[in-house]
Amino acid sequence: MQLSHRITHLTGGGSDGWDVFYRSRRMIAEGVAVTELTIGEHDIGTDQSILDAMHRSASGGHTGYAMVPGIASLRRAVAERIEAQSGVATGPENILITPGGQAALFAAHMAACNPGDRALYLDPHYATYPGTLRGAGAIPVAVPTRPEDAFLPRAEEIDARAEGAASLLINTPNNPTGTVYDRPTLEGIAEVCRRRDLWLISDEVYDTQVWEGRHLSPRALPGMAERTLVVGSMSKSHAMTGSRIGWICGPEAAIAHLVTLATHTTYGVAGFVQDAAEFALAQGPELEQRIAAPFRRRRDLATGIIAAQKAVTLIPSRGAMYLMLDIRATGLDGETFANRLLDAHRIAVMPGESFGPSAAGHVRVAMTIEDAGFAAALKCLCDFAAGLAGTG
Fold first, then answer.
1. What is the pTM (predicted TM-score) of this model?
2. Most-buried pick from 149, 189, 194, 289 (CB within 10 A)?
3. pLDDT per residue as tens digits for the range 88-115
């Protein structure tokens, strides 16, 4: 018996990009103290009030099958939040509740792409993107970006690869780079999508984590609401990563078909989790700002630490909970640097190469431990790089 080509080739026959992370977790399991700056997991837990709401709902009996599209009141709350942020008229009929943003990404590509269609995505990218596209039956096509552009995409680079493509996946604020796409960048992307008749799949799970500028959803640009599927999540905005609850926002007809897909795949999200999400959204932007505040603070700490040395360069960090550091002055690629840093100092970071070849010679640092420990680890990383680069 053989497994399907689809499942055995999700990673394209190579690494899934998580090798250093897996290695650090094995070390921790063996009793080694490791400072983990790898994944986007908050160092605070889900707020107790949200957990209390979840408990009340479960204890009150909301543990059976929930409506597959999502409970009506949560769909309405998500629609109201999106309309308030974007200025685009949005109703519950535009919303499908999903088991997290990752499930939403997969479903969106199932809606946008036929088997064998070319699906564009930007490099560097979140590590799961190419496998998600392959899993949906599409052919992933990377569009490179450049560190000298702060990894902002160029419309002409997208257009050059758009022939025969069905979709384009973008992510702003961006993981892994910390870049926030400005209006001219998004307008260039939108123009290509309209002219090439592409679905735009916009991953906006970091929309509450903007340190400079403002978040602009491309769905708000002229002619884009009818061709954009927005992926959102409670994971980053409300520190609910393990609750696995997100959404897709899109045209009513597309959402109706996505509900059918959910009926045949996930069959919805637990009702008590949805009730907790609705409670969390009802707390308004004050809670979102409180959850985002540590990352803003650590980004400011990092800016000062990196400005005081010459071996490491910071890609301008304007959003999200990550720093993208250029370590090419050390003469090492990102994977070698990350493994040597882990060996020498028990600090785990993600190699830039985990996110695609455009980030070669970089490492991604997650700002996800308390301030003093984060500052000490980042100073250690910079000192280690300086020793390798001969600038110490």
1. 0.96
2. 189
3. 999 999 999 999 999 999 999 999 999 9
